[in-house]
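Protocol step 4 of 6.
Sequence for Carboxypeptidase-like regulatory domain-containing protein (Aquimarina aggregata) entered exactly as in the expression construct, tag removed. Do not edit the line below.
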Amino acid sequence: MNIKLACIITIIFSFFTVLVTAQTITSKIVDKKTNKPIPYATIQIAENQGIITNEEGRFSVTLKKTTPPIDSIYISSMGYEKLSLATQNPIDTIIYIQPKAIELKSVFVSNKKLTIDEIIDNVEDRLEQNYHFDITQKRLFFRESEFNTMNKLDIEFKKSTIEELNKEFIDSIAKIIPRKSEYYTETLCDYYGGPEKRKINIIKAAELYDKNNSGSMEALSEKLERIFKENVKPDSYLKIKSGIFGTKVQVDSILENSEEASAAKDEINDKKEDKSKFLKYRRSAIKGLFKNMFFQDDPTLNFIRKSGRYEFKLVDYTYMDDSSVYIISFEPKRKEDFKGTLYVNTENFAVMRVDYENVKLLRNFKLLGLSYKENIYKGTTIFTKGPDNKYTVKYLEKIKGNIFGVDRPLKVIEKNKHVKGKRKQNELALEIDAGVGNVSKYEIVVFDAKTLTEDDYNNSKENTSIKPEYLSKYDPQFWKGYNIIEPNAAIRQFTVAPETE
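Step 5 output, structure tokens:
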């Protein structure tokens, strides 16, 4: 063969080899019989490595160059046949998988038939040997989605002795406050955690929200600050009353000279850019999600630790990760909070998946015009078994929602004992009737987990130099080259209106 031609063929072959070993596969997993998307399906790319489909059955996985190269990916989901796809062949944008037939006899080949109480007792007795209670390192992707809705906002103007704080201005405040807002954060990190220890090393992060909402509120704050300075004496104090309740605030503690005010603004701006604050909150949020697992001590999800308070029922059998599992429903006997479904391994009695939701308000407070309801608390957690035969989180989804309301009068009265005559200098009186709904959704995908020694943990470092990148709309290129859980339609379609951006 001609030497030049051989070189060209070698170069072309090498080029295509790089493409294959660094290719990105984006697809959707669908039930072959029903044509419905399959959420939480596993796409395994190597031993103990992989990604999971989102709630719409979508996934995107990057196959980086490895030795030996990855020649196949494996797709599995509870109750479905496992599917192997060769990476050297084109992979369809829609992948169909077949439901798996359940042979009931095979479930009990090595197990005698147990009662539901015996199964649950075994689950509780084996928590220590089935789950991690020591320090681990997890490479994970964490997405937080927050939705706020102003269900009601009526501000009735009653009285003001300050000319600029008139009815028109108060009405304009009600118009500026956004009725709906969305806020998303995405973080890829290493999380080092145990019962009392936690660190986080952020690799990359993004924030997706509308800056115009916060900008409008900042402009309003600056205008109120100017009105306040021009009309209120520095040695006054404010008496803030709502109904029968009142409190005093010294104006000297609010008003500052121009140099101090400038420094305060600089400090506020610094806090907006404060990387450690972002890191601190991510660390705290992830810790809270892991700490409240059903197998931890005194969790909110108490259906295993306080199993006597729940009614369990064995409803069916299926397969997960090639293991036969019991499908067990649960609901409270009396006053407990949750109902749901457990998927329990028939051999080692590990809970491999749990779906749960609240059956009543977790909190319900109403007093003197103030109300608070915690009305949503639900989620799904899926576990996978590691090389040490202990189970760790593969995917976690948790949704919390609450409604806050206030229907009360509000008076702000300026008083000054250094002025001759009446102490009262100014007064603003309003009637406020407002209701705000909040829904927060948390998602965690764990790509890899391993146990750490005390020395390993102490030697681990937190990267405080990483700052989240602001995105005004979803950018599919931002996470290119990284394996994450695909965003849902709401995130993909989010964008800030061009005329106000």
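Step 6, annotate. The longest helix spans residues 211-231.
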